[in-house]
Amino acid sequence: MITYYDDRSVQVTSTAVRVDGRTFPLTEISLVWHQRGSRSWRVLAGRGAIGAALAGPLVAAALGIALALWLDRSPTVTIAIVGASVLVGLAVGPVADFLFEHLDRSYARGSRQLELWARWRGHPVRLLRTGDALRFGQIYRAVQRAVERSQPAAARRG
């Protein structure tokens, strides 16, 4: 038996697909497809918040420098304001790696609910629904490979 994918709730082997305790023998699956749901505004808002957190200190630094030049104070005051603004801008540095990592994971997970469907015993059955795009892609490809390899060569050609 070949295992194509295996995690806590999904197992795809050369004989069956098991999802949350339900077993679907590959010999009874004739077609596999997927559907995408609507975008999650919560995920998109989270990405926007991360972008604002990255840009906020830089915008504050630029505004501080513009303010220092606009006030036209003594060189000491201007240098102090510009220095403080630069420090505020540099504050984004240590946090940027953390925020970029969260932003990257957000794109890997995706912003839509994804569904994996199969024609099982002649009826459409939803095998899986998840918002994790990376995991979904791995499972979907594993099911495709398993179904393709379970069919006889003559059926694949025709």
Automatic annotation (TrEMBL):
<keyword id="KW-0472">Membrane</keyword>
<dbReference type="Pfam" id="PF19744">
    <property type="entry name" value="DUF6232"/>
</dbReference>
<feature type="transmembrane region" description="Helical">
    <location>
        <begin position="49"/>
        <end position="71"/>
    </location>
</feature>
<protein>
    <submittedName>
        <fullName>Uncharacterized protein</fullName>
    </submittedName>
</protein>
<keyword id="KW-0812">Transmembrane</keyword>
<keyword id="KW-1133">Transmembrane helix</keyword>
<feature type="transmembrane region" description="Helical">
    <location>
        <begin position="77"/>
        <end position="100"/>
    </location>
</feature>
<dbReference type="InterPro" id="IPR045629">
    <property type="entry name" value="DUF6232"/>
</dbReference>
